[in-house]
Write a structure and sequence with these properties.
The protein has about 80 residues and is mainly alpha-helical. The chain has a domain of about 30 residues. About 75% of the residues lie in helices and about 0% in strands. It contains two helices and no strands. The longest helix has 30 residues. The chain is elongated, with a radius of gyration of 34 Å. The mean pLDDT is about 80.
Length: about 80
């Protein structure tokens, strides 16, 4: 009977230690604060110029491939 009570005390002690360790580990995660504290604000960057260049490049490649295909058929 004494061994059983010692085992129960050991299990309770182990459970309390595990909870304590979890509290110690989670503390720094909470202390970091919310995202966006301080620092420069993000700047909006227009992407219109880059997209129009990509579309123009794709159109130029497509036209050159069409012209090569026409010359193969007729030539």
């Amino acid at each position: 009977m004494i061994a059983l009570t010692n085992l129960l005390i050991y299990e309770k002690l182990l459970a309390c230690m595990a909870v304590g360790i979890l509290f110690l580990i989670s503390g720094p995660a909470i202390a970091q604060g919310t995202p966006g504290n301080g620092g420069p604000t993000p700047v909006d960057i227009p992407i219109d110029g880059g997209i129009s260049l990509l579309i123009a490049g794709g159109a130029a490649i497509g036209l050159s491939k069409l012209r090569k295909r026409k010359t193969r058929k007729h030539g």
